[in-house]
Amino acid sequence: MGAPADALKRALIVGLVTLGLAFPIVALRTDANFSNQLVLTQRWGLAFTLAGIAFVAAFLLALVRPVGFERTTPGKTVTSTPPHPFLRYLPYIGLAFLLAYPFIALGISSAGGTGVLKLVDTYGIQILIYVLLGLGLNIILGLAGLLDLGFVAFYAVGAYSSALLTTTFGLSFWLVLPLAGILAAFWGVMISLPVLRLKGDYIAIVTLAFAEIVRLVLVNWVPVTGGYAGISSIPKPTLFGFSLGSEPGSLPYMLGFPPSPIYRLAFMYYLVLALALAAYWVTIRLRTLPVGRAWEAMREDEIACRSLGINTVTTKVTAFAAGAFFGGLAGAFFSAHYGFISPKSFEFLESAMIVAIVVLGGLGSMVGVAIAATVMIGGTELLRELGLLKAVFGPDFDPAQYRMMLFGLAMVMLMVWRPKGLIATREPTVRLKPPATRGAPAAVPAE
Amino acid sequence: MDYFVQQLINGLTLGSIYGLIAIGYTMVYGIIGMVNFAHGDVFMLAAFIALILFLMLTQLLGVGSLGLALLVVLVLGMALTSLWGWVIERLAYRPLRGSFRLAPLISAIGMSIFLSNFVQLVQGPRNKTLEPILSNVLVIPVGDGSVTLAEKQLLIMVVTAALLGVLWYVVRHTSLGRAQRACEQDRKMAALLGVDVDRTISLTFIIGAMLASVAGLLWMTYYGVVSFSDGFVPGVKAFTAAVLGGIGSLPGAVLGGLLIGLIETFWSAYFTIDYKDVAAFSILAIVLIFLPSGLLGRPDVEKV
Amino acid sequence: MRWLSEPLLAVDHLSMRFGGLVAINDLSFTVGRGDITALIGPNGAGKTTVFNCITGFYKPTSGRLALSHGGPADPAAVATLTRSDKKRTHGATPELFLLERMPDHAIASEARVARTFQNIRLFPGMTVLENLIVAQHKTLMAASDYSLGGILGLAKYRAAEHKALELARAWLEVVGLVERADDPAGDLPYGAQRRLEIARAMCTNPVLLCLDEPAAGLNNRESAELTRLLRGIRAQTGVSILLIEHDMSVVMDISDHVVVIEYGVKIADGTADAVKNDPKVIAAYLGVDDEEVAAAAAGSVRP
Ligand SMILES: Nc1ncnc2c1ncn2[C@@H]1O[C@H](COP(=O)(O)OP(=O)(O)OP(=O)(O)O)[C@@H](O)[C@H]1O
Ligand SMILES: [Mg+2]
Fold first, then answer.
1. Together in a domain, C141 and C193
2. How far lies A48's CA from each of A18, A19, A190, B90, B119, in Å?
3. Ligand 1 site, residue C49, Cβ cutoff 6 A
4. Chain A residues with CB inside 8 Å of B35's CB?
5. Residues C100 and C135 in one domain
6. How many domains does chain C have?
7. What is the mean pLDDT of each run of 10 residues along chain B (304 residues)?
8. Which of residues 30-49 of C touch B (CB under 8 A)?
C-alpha cells in the first residue's frame, strides 16, 4: 500500500542529498580568466538536472525493489552445479575466434568498417597485452589472494629492461624476452620478501609504494631511463633474422607481397597471442600442482594452510615470482611493439586497471580475465569513438573524459552487486568422480 | 640556525595538515580494519569545495571580511564534505560488510578513481591558483638571523591544535567515543550490547571527512593551488603518517603527520627535491615492514 | 598412566602473556603416546592458547615444549638439545623436537602435530577432496620436484598424486563424506565440516592430533558418533589425541587422561575418574554449568 509513498520519500531524500553533493562542486565551476584570476561560472541547471535524475532513478528503483537496494547476502562458495556447457566450450570458441581474428578484421575493414590496422592493433594487440598482464596478476591476486596494487612495477621492469638491453647492448628481442620475464620475476621475489608478514591491506599499500618508487626512479634517473622523455627507437622483433616490414630484404618483400604494415602487425598479434596462451597453459598446469593448490588454499585461509605444514612465505614468493614473470613478458612485448616507452605508461591507474580486470573476471578465472580485458579495454576504446554520444550531448562532448570516472564507478558497483565477478564458478583442480553433465546430475546422495 | 628553524616551522605546518588527514585513515582503520583508499581524494574534494565556497562568498556574495569568509567556508565546507563522507560510506562500503576480504579495499580504490576523475570532469584539469591570502609574516629573530612565520601558518597550527582538543574530548568523554571504542574491540559484541554499529561507523566516516575538510581548507590557504590530482600523493603521505604513528591511535596519527611533514621539508631543504616523494613512499614501506605497529600503536598478536 | 611412563609431548613451565594479561602461567603437563588426553577448563582458561603455543601460532613467553618421535625422550638428551640453539635433532632415536623454537608450518610438517580450530577453518571455496589433497602438500611438493617435474607432467608426480587421492578417499570413507567429495567444503553442514577438518588434519599423517572443541555445536547423536570416530582413528593409526572439550559426556567417555586448567594454571591432572571427583575441579566448574559438573561427578554419562 504505502510502497509508492515510501518510494517517493526515499527518492526525495536521494534527490536532496544529490543536490547537496552537487553544490558547490558541480554548480559552480572555477576557471582562470585572462588576468589569471579565478572566476566562477554558475551552472545551477546542471546541478538540478543531476539531482532530478537521481530523484527519478531512486524512485523507480525503490518501486521495483521496495526493500531498498541492498544486495543479497554474499557468499564465497562456488556453485556445485557443473558449469553451463557454453562455459565449458567457451575457451575453444574463444581460441578459434582469436586465431581467426586478423582475417575477421580484414573482412570487417573491407566491408567498410574501421581500418584493419586499428582493429588489429588497438583492439587485438592492446587487449591481449592486458590479458597477459591480467593472467599474471591472476596468479598473485586471483589464486593466491594477495592484493598487489603495484603490478605495474613488473610490467615496467620488463619493458625498461628489454628496451635497455636491446638499445644499449643490441641483444635480440628473442633473447631479451625471457630475460625480461626472469628479471621481473626476480623483482617479484625482491618485492615480496619484505611484504610477506604483512596483513592483507598492508600488502596492497606496500606494493603500491614500491611501484610508485619504481616509477619515480624511472622519472628521475634521467641518464639511464631518459626521464619523462623515455626510451625510443626500440628495435622491432624479427623472425629468424628477417624483418617483417615491407622494405627490401624483409620477409614479405622476398615473398613478393605488396608493401603493407599489416604483416608486422599480424606477426605481433600472433606473438602476443602465443604469449597469452602460454601463460594460460602454464597457469592451468600450476593450478593442479601442489604450489597452485597451496596458492588457492592460502587465499581461502592462510592460518589453516600453516596448520597443514605449508610454508606460506615461500608460497607467497612463488606466486609473486610467477605472476611477475608474465608481467615482465608483457612489458618486453609492449616495448618492442610500440618502440617507445615512458613512465607515463606505468602509473598507478594502470595497476588499478589490471586489478579491475582480474576482479571483474572473477578472482581466479582465466577465461574471466580474457572476457574482462575485452570488456574493459575494448569498452573504453569504443567509448572514445562513439560519435553517437557526441550527437546526443553536443559537439563539445568528449566521452574519453568520462572513461576513467565510469571505470572507478564500475569498480565500486562491481563490488556491491557482483563481487564474485563475471565468472563466479570455479573448476575443481581434481575430482573423485567424473564431472556430471548438466541436466543429468549424478545420483544425489540420500540424506 | 635560522634556516633550520625556518624549515622546522614549515615542516610543522605541513605536518599539521597531514596529521588532520591521517586521523581519518586511522579512525576508519581502527573501527572497520579497512584502508579507506578514497580518503585522500575526499581531502582533495574538500580543498575544491573550500576554494569554490571562498570564491562564492568573496566574488558572488561580496563578503568583504576575510575572517568572516573563512569562518563560513570552514563551517559550510565541513558540512558538505561530511555529506560526501557519509554518502561514500553508505554506497560503497556499507553494502560490503561480510563480503569477501578484499572487497572494501577494491571498492575504495574505485571510489578514489571516481572522485579524482569526477572533479577533473566538473572543474577542469588545470591547477586552480588563488591569490595569496593571509600572507603577512611575523619576523622572529633567531640567533643572528631571523625566521618568518606567516599568518596562515599560525592559523594552521592553531586550528589543528583546537580541533585535536575537540576530537580528544569527543573520543574520550562522549557516548560516541565509547561506542567507537567498543566497535574497535569487538563489533559483534558491541552490537549485542546495544551499540548501533552502523551509526557509529557512519559517524566515524563523517568525522574523518570533517577533518579532511579542514585540512583541505588549510591546504588551499597555505599553498593557494589545488588540482584534481592532489588526492593521491598527500593521501599516501597521510596514510604513511597514520601507519608511522601506529594505526588506530589518534595521538599517533598527529605525531606521524608532524614527523612526515618534518621529514619531507628537511629532505627537500637539505637533499634533493626530486626524490622527496620517494622518501615518503620508502618510509611507508620501511615502517610497515619493520615497525608494523608504529610508534604509539599496540603490537597485536593475530588471534587464531 | 602412559602420560607418566611414555610421554609423547612434555609441556614444561609454559607461560604466555598478552601485554598485561597472563593467559597461561607456569603450566606443566605431559601427553601420553597413544592416549586420548583432554584439556578442559572454564571459558577463557587459556586452553586454546595452549594449543596455539603447541602448534606454533603463538610464541610462548617462556617454557619448553618437547616432543619425541618413536619412543620416550631421554631427559638428558632433551636437556642437551635445550642448551644447544637447535630446534630439533636429526637422525636420533627418539627424534626430539623443541616446538617453541619451530615455526608453525614446520611443527605440522616435521614434528607432525596436526590441529583443528575452534571456529572451523576449512578452505570453503575448494572442494572437500581438494581440502584433503592440500593437506598432503609436503609429499606432493617433493614428488613434483618443487613444481619443475610436475609442470612437465612427469610420471613420478602422477603416481604420487594418485596415492594422495587414494589416501584422501580412505579418509573420506572414514568420516563418511565420499558422496560429497566434489562439493565445495563450505556447502557442507556444520557437523560434516567438523569431521572434514579432522580428516584433513589426519591427511598430514600426524603423531599428535590436537582438536579444539570438536563436539561444539553437535547434537547428542553427532557427539556420540564423534566419540566413535576418534576411538576408531586412534585404533587405526595409533595417533595420540589432545582435545579441548566442554561437553563433559564426551570428555569422560573417551579420555585416558584429563588436564584441568583455570586462569592459565593447572588445577588437576589425572584419569577421568580421579579428576571428576576433585573438589577443585568441581569448584571451578560450579557456576559455569552446574548441571554438567553434577552429571560428571555422578558419573552418569549422557548417551
Ligand atoms: N591473541 C590474543 N591477544 C590477546 N589476548 C588473547 C589472545 N588470545 C587469547 N587471549 C586471551 O587469553 C585468554 C585465554 O583465551 P583462550 O582462547 O585460550 O581461552 P579458552 O580456554 O580457549 O576459552 P574458550 O573455552 O572460550 O575457548 C583470554 O582472556 C583471551 O582473551
Ligand atoms: Mg578456546
1. yes
2. 9, 7, 53, 22, 18
3. yes
4. 201, 204-205
5. no
6. 2
7. 86 93 92 90 96 91 86 94 95 89 90 93 88 82 81 88 90 87 84 88 94 93 90 91 89 93 88 79 84 80 71
8. 48
